[in-house]
């Protein structure tokens, strides 16, 4: 973020959320919370656009099981495989 190109605002956050936000900013943007929030806002706008696209093609939203499999993959955990029947 560059001075002169930004506007100042404020947020009310609980202590745990603020700690997490600062930790994420440290990891991703050398501690720049504003840059992290700008990244999150940009990403959220892309999610909304993707949802609109999926909706226009009647793609159903992910169910809880699919979300858990995706999140397990992000965490590097082994994904549970669906059991297959053997061919007769």
Q: Would you write up a description of this structure?
A:
With 88 residues, the chain is mainly alpha-helical. The chain is built from three helices and no strands. Helix 1 crosses helix 2.
What are the defining features of this structure?
0% strand; elongated; 88 residues; mainly alpha
Task: Tell me the total number of β-strands.
Answer: 0
Q: Low-confidence runs (pLDDT<50, min 5 residues)?
A: none
Could you say which overall geometry the principal axes of the C-alpha atoms support? elongated
Helix content bin: 55-70%
The main β sheet shows up as: none
Instruction: Decide which structural class fits the backbone.
Output: mainly alpha
Cα-based radius of gyration, to the nearest Å: 19 Å
Give the mean pLDDT.
89
SSE string, helix = H, strand = E? Answer: HHH
Terminal CA distance reads: 62 Å
**Number of helix segments?**
3
Share of residues in strands: under 5%
């Amino acid at each position: 973020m560059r001075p002169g190109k930004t506007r100042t605002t404020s947020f009310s956050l609980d202590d745990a959320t603020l700690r997490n936000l600062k930790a994420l900013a440290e990891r991703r943007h050398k501690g720049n919370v504003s840059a992290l929030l700008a990244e999150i806002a940009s990403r959220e706008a892309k999610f909304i656009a993707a949802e609109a696209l999926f909706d226009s093609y009647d793609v159903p939203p992910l169910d809880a099981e699919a979300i858990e499999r995706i999140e397990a993959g992000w965490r590097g955990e082994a994904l549970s495989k669906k059991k297959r029947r053997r061919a007769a």
